[in-house]
Amino acid sequence: NVKITLLGTHRELSIIKLQNNANTNLFSATSSDVHFEKLGIDGNKANNATVLAGITGSVSDCRFYECDVFDCNTGIDIDSGSNPGCVVTRCWIYGNKQYGVQVGTDSLLAHCMIGDNGSSADSNACNVYAPGWDSRIEGCHIYGTTALSKVGIYAHYANDVTVIGCVIEEHQREGIYFN
Q1: Which of the pair, 118 or 8, is modelled with greater confidence?
Q2: Which of 57, 60, 88, 172 has the smallest CB count inside 10 Å?
């Protein structure tokens, strides 16, 4: 496995933007020990017919700290599978079409602003998609102010998902949907 580390100076100053007409993921990795810090991740959906994900992959031991992730289909799409342990802390994840963030097994999503994601026609589009086990979502502000922002947290086939100290507001359907 390869260690991947990208460090910026500030999420509003160190912005990585998908080029026009690229129609792909901005970052894709299959690794462990992935670390993004103080970066802006811009999917540039206005100039791409298809923007899949800002950051995607089957990774373990990943860390996202003070990042903005916006204008993608899915902002952060981490399938940790049998190699768990992703932490997303103090990030702003907004304006993504399908999911704001997908976290897998044994993940922590903490003190993030997550909003106006999930505006696609998919009935399960949401701000946070939590299909794993033993995940924790704490201290987040999860909001949906657009007319199509459907679900705050969608816990799909999940076990032991803990939501604590979050503000979840203004969604077209459920604030939290367990299925």
Answers
A1: 8
A2: 172
Contact between residue 153 and residue 162 where contact means Cβ atoms under 8 Å apart: no
Q: Which of 120, 106, 112, 92 is nearest to 158 (CA)?
A: 106
Does the reported pTM lie above 0.70? yes
Q: Are 167 and 139 in contact (CB under 8 A)?
A: no
Residue written as token pair 């260690």: 3
pLDDT tens, residue by residue, 76-101: 988 655 556 789 999 999 999 888 99
Residues in the chain: 179
99-104: average pLDDT: 87
Residues 6+ apart with CB under 8 A from 77: 53, 55, 56, 57, 99, 101, 102
Phi, psi of 30 (to 5 degrees): -130, 95
